[in-house]
Amino acid sequence: MTRPDPAGGAVLPGTNPVTEAGRMAPKNYDGVLLASFGGPEGQDDVIPFLRNVTRGRGIPDERLEEVSQHYRANGGISPINQQNRELKAALEAELRARGIELPVLWGNRNWDPYIPQTLQDAYDAGHRKLLMVTTSAYSCYSSCRQYREDIGIALTETGLDGRLEVDKVRQYFDHPGFVEPFIEGTAAGLADVRAQLAAAGTPDAPVHILFATHSIPTRDAEAAGRSADEPREFDEGSAYVAQHLATGAAVISRVQAESGLTAPWSLVYQSRSGAPHVPWLEPDINDAIADLAGQGIKGIVIVPLGFVSDHMEVVWDLDTEALETCRNLGLAATRVPTPGTHRKFVNGLVDLISERTLANNISDRPAVTGLGPWYDVCRPGCCANFRGEKPTIAGADTTVGTGHDAYPAAPADAAGREGTP
After folding, report:
1. Is 7 left (phi over 0), alpha (psi -120 to 50) or beta?
2. What is the chain's alpha carbon radius of gyration, rounded to the nearest angstrom?
3. The pLDDT value given to residue 416
4. Rounded to 5 degrees, what are φ and ψ at 274?
5. Is 214 known to sit in a ligand binding site?
6. Which helix (H) or strand (E) holds 105?
7. How many Å apart are CA 48 and CA 57, to the nearest integer?
């Protein structure tokens, strides 16, 4: 969807008046859990990692080997684990600087350190109340509910249900700490592409901004943010899509106001996987680039708005494939950084933690779009799992750990994806 008016649409349909039912009272937590996707750290890890990601789908190793090539091309190493180590260290440093005595624990969905073992180690060390921060900012099954299921399943399988409590911070797609690095990066990216065009003798050539995020099945997109007890209408019929559009509009508005730079923009998708007959969100970024080149666009700024760090799906799908598409079409192009360990992002995550703690509490809950601040407690049935019932924490109707709810899960929709979703 093209947004030709960079100043327009900063507040989209679906404005969220935060209700008391969606906001949790502060607690005395005794640890922070950083939860992420995980990734292989050597060639021998790649197939076992992909087996973890696709468990239960009956995909043979021969097919997994076909989809492993972006890892193989990088020595079998995904950047994501090292990025999580760096983010963990940055969070620990910021917590210490604020006098907040909370250790940061780290657990992954699909690779060591695994979430169940992290929870068991936490309990053995004396922890009883953990607050989870995930490396996923938006609302959909794989970027929110699946993490809640990961914890619910782990608490059940380890026998820690009722003994270890785990809550989760709100989805932070429009928290200033997440958005500010993209504002800086988009302004710098526009300036860079303009400089490339000027050096080529075409300083006034048209430029387009592509906000890129992970594609998901359209059924998952339609279920994102849906709740039987609080019907809401979202732009494009999906909280996942609406959150990206609203955040993108906020970024463009700030860039234009602060730098005077502007350009039309679109939301595009990447990293599709799964059965070809299953509809996913479109357009694909490479198709969009080709279409824009056909319309006379000469410069492209790629903003990885859906992602927290420069993991494999940024390094491969954007830095390798999308930028190669731009080069092949003769387009000036650049890719904007993800938040990573940007000071504002780390500060923002600690602010999100402090929203939920009794000590050093922050009562203000900032949001740069009309959709937020998002809920602390997910609404009943939100981001449904269409594959079956699973124990789930941090929902309005939960009973495992901090609770359990059971709704149907989206198809296992990716082979090796590690982004946010």
Report:
1. alpha
2. 21
3. 42
4. 95, 180
5. yes
6. strand 104-108
7. 14
For the segment 371-417, what is each residue's pLDDT rounded down to a tens digit?
999 999 888 888 888 877 788 887 776 656 544 443 333 333 444 44
Tell whether the torsion through CA atoms of 146, 151, 156 and 161 is positive or negative: negative
Predicted TM-score of the model (pTM): 0.90
pLDDT at residue 288, rounded to an integer:
98
Domain assignment of residue 250, given as a range: 2-15+178-335
- Which residues 6+ apart lie within 8 Å of 410 measured at CB? 141, 142, 216, 217, 219, 220, 223, 384, 385, 386, 387
* Bridge partners, 269 (sequence order): 213, 284
Say if 381 falls within a structural domain.
no
Half-sphere exposure for 126 (CA within 13 Å, toward CB): 3
Per-residue pLDDT of 200-250, as tens digits, reads 999 999 999 999 999 999 999 999 988 777 678 898 889 999 999 999 999
138 marked as binding residue: no
The phi, psi pair for 76, rounded to 5°, reads: 75, 10
* Three state DSSP letters for 211-261: EEEECCEHHHHHHCCCCCCCCCCCHHHCHHHHHHHHHHHHHHHHHHHHHCC
Residue 408 forms part of a structural domain: no
Residue 123 labeled ligand binder: no
* Residue ranges in the chain modelled with pLDDT below 70: 1-21, 230, 397-421
Report yes or no on 266 lying in a domain: yes
b/e per residue, 355-365, with b = 16+ CB within 10 A?
Answer: bbbeeeeeeeb
CA dihedral sign of residues 399, 139, 183, 246 = negative
How many domains in the chain?
1
Query: Is 418 a domain residue?
Result: no
Q: How far apart are CA 181 and CA 176, in angstroms?
A: 9
Conformational region of residue 414, where left means phi above 0, alpha means psi within -120 to 50, and beta covers everything else = beta
The angle at the Cα of 335, spanning 218 to 289, to the nearest 5 degrees, equals 55
- As a whole number of angstroms, the distance between CA 247 and CA 179 comes to 7
Residue 113, preceding bond cis, omega within 30 degrees?
yes
Cβ 261 vs Cβ 209: under 8 Å: no
How much is the pLDDT for 7?
29
Structure tokens at 183: 């504002």
Q: Specify the pairing of strand 332-335 against strand 31-36.
A: unpaired
CATH number at residue 244: 3.40.50.1400
